[in-house]
Amino acid sequence: MKWFRRRKAEDVTPTHLPNAEEAAQRFWERWFELVPVVSAALGDGEPHRVEDELKDLVQALHPDLMFSLEQGHMAIYALVITGQEDPRLRPYTDAWIKAAPPSDMVWEFHDSVPPVPDPTEVIVNLGEVRMRLGDYRVVAQVDGDVVDVAVYHPALAELSDQQRQTMTFLPLDVTLGERLAGERLRRVETAQLEPEGTISLLELRSLVRELAGVSDG
């Protein structure tokens, strides 16, 4: 899993259309032209060949959106475009997913980060720091229908502030899915030292899904 943020503001001139439906239509027109090249690059194990083209494509939809290329759940590849639950961006992701083509054997599309079947098998490399999500521990405190969490990983102390923030929220998103995390997690903190009474990410998933009345099967 590799997430791509937009380029710095000084590096680009915003070109997205103010009308979300028109922006989505333009995106898919360009996607169909680009997808053979994207599929070929991924098939060769060289996604860097198309990173700039995809950044420009998403930039044109809206410059504040993030995207990732992932292994699909039902298809070979998945394209995820997310506004990270920012209400300003919801019209763009809604229009984008509404206009998306049906999933096929090669591509599927998501407008929020879907949960990974087993997040404990995911490894994220940040420069020289290698973080196995299975090593995360979480303290979860239920308050009514929401949960406050403190997140701990021994490598978080080695990261920059921005990396630490990303790697505090990312394991929660890939464990619960971005939508469920946004709905049910209230306060999220980074624990400097491993707290007592921690649970695993999979145990957190079961807890939050039970709270939300979502099947854990």
Using brief descriptors, characterize the structure shown.
217 residues; alpha/beta; 4-stranded mixed β-sheet; 3-stranded mixed β-sheet; 6 helices; 36% helix; globular
Detail the topology: elements first, then pairings.
Elements: E1 2-4, H1 20-43, H2 51-61, E2 66-71, E3 77-82, H3 90-98, E4 107-110, E5 123-126, E6 129-132, E7 137-143, E8 146-152, H4 161-176, H5 178-184, E9 185-190, H6 201-212
Describe this structure as you would to a colleague.
- The protein has 217 residues and is of the alpha/beta class.
- The chain has helices at 20-43, 51-61, 90-98, 161-176, 178-184, 201-212; strands at 2-4, 66-71, 77-82, 107-110, 123-126, 129-132, 137-143, 146-152, 185-190.
- The strands form 3 sheets. It has a 4-stranded mixed β-sheet. It has a 3-stranded mixed β-sheet with strand order 7-8-9.
- Helix 1 (20-43) runs antiparallel to helix 2 (51-61), helix 1 (20-43) packs across helix 3 and helix 4 (161-176) packs across helix 6 (201-212).
- It is globular.
- The two termini are 23 Å apart.
